[in-house]
Amino acid sequence: MTTPEPHSGNVWPIWEVFVRSSRGLSHVHAGSLHAPDAAMALRNARDLYTRRNEGVSIWVVPADAIASSDPDAKGAFFESPQGKDYRHATYYTKSEGVKHL
Amino acid sequence: MASQTLQSVPAEPSPARHETRHEMSPEDAARRDAEGQAYFDKVMAEDSRIEPRDWMPPAYRKTLLRQISQHAHSEIIGMQPEANWISRAPSLKRKSILMAKVQDEAGHGLYLYSAAETLGQPRDQMMQDLMAGKAKYSSIFNYPARTWADMGAIGWMVDGAAIANQVPLCRASFGPYGRAMVRVCKEESFHQRQGFEILLELSNGTPEQKQMAQDAVNRWYAPALMMFGPPDDDSPNSKQSMAWNIKRFSNDELRNRFVGMMMEQVKVLGLTLPDKDIRFNEDTKKWEHGPLDWEEFHEVIAGRGQCNAQRLERRREAHENGAWVREAAAAYAEKQAKKSAEKVSAA
Question: Looking at this predicted complex, what is its ipTM?
Fold first, then answer.
């Protein structure tokens, strides 16, 4: 994956923005923006995505540094949990009604 | 995060995918398209979401790209009628509010450009298309903002119409578009309320101020109703967009709903809507408005509205006059990079 080819002039790379809305929560993808470097990406992300106290922490990641799974291989890639219901607490019914279990 | 394809990673033409396409035999490509179509149809039937790297019909991609980029352009051009009034706002507080609002519009444009980019169109290209007059934006921004009361009417009616239109778009079938709209809608209601408050203040002011508010409402009413687009039987793309779960309600449905809301709210303002034909249809249980001048609408869309030329000219100027900011930012980034490289080699 690469950022779009600059087709004219100098186009800044795309950064993906992740915002932590409060302490104790994880960073969640908020959107993306263009910036020449990480410091400016952070500043722009603050101005663009946290104008209303949306966050206490921001991550910016160059879009082309993110590897993602192949959407065409969705089925095969995520099939391992299939048939493994015993991984869920709800699978174990005999203990129903037993207190503090 | 692993299961989620990220925004801004262009789906097509992504180099990796492109190569696979080339290597594929025509039979394989056809099979892949058939599988893609089947998956896409299933997603539509389940009212689920399509993400950027999923297979999608070329027409779906094209429709979305047109709609999202037009939407982004509208936000960016929409900054102009209001920015004109920042220096003339009646108080420091009103000035701050208007600046915040214009800043929001810029932000909305950026969220939407980001969403459009995930469809594979570079932002730079979209901006070039706008400045070259090749891309369309909402007809409403080609009307002039003549008085301070227009800031009220724009906030109350134009942003009100935008909200009525945008709330259903939060459920649009294309993930990045829906997510951008959620963010936009959260911010829009501030805009509508501040507009309402401006009109209410003026309406409770001197007779001249009240008249100024009424004049603004009179001028913005019809253009605001036309923001929902042409009537249903004259809206060629609507049906397909609804089948694709991009649009959830027809133009006329949204327009009528909006008229009903205005009818209630205008009473609180102590003003009237310039439409003697508004009525509640007891049979359909829907509000109906009087006739609108669709010829004017098409003229404005075709680039012959009152301010089309001025808006585009101003956009080009702003882009050119802002070049130094982009250059300075790039130069600063380069300097910082050089500095930290020197530090590393010295250590």
Answer: 0.83
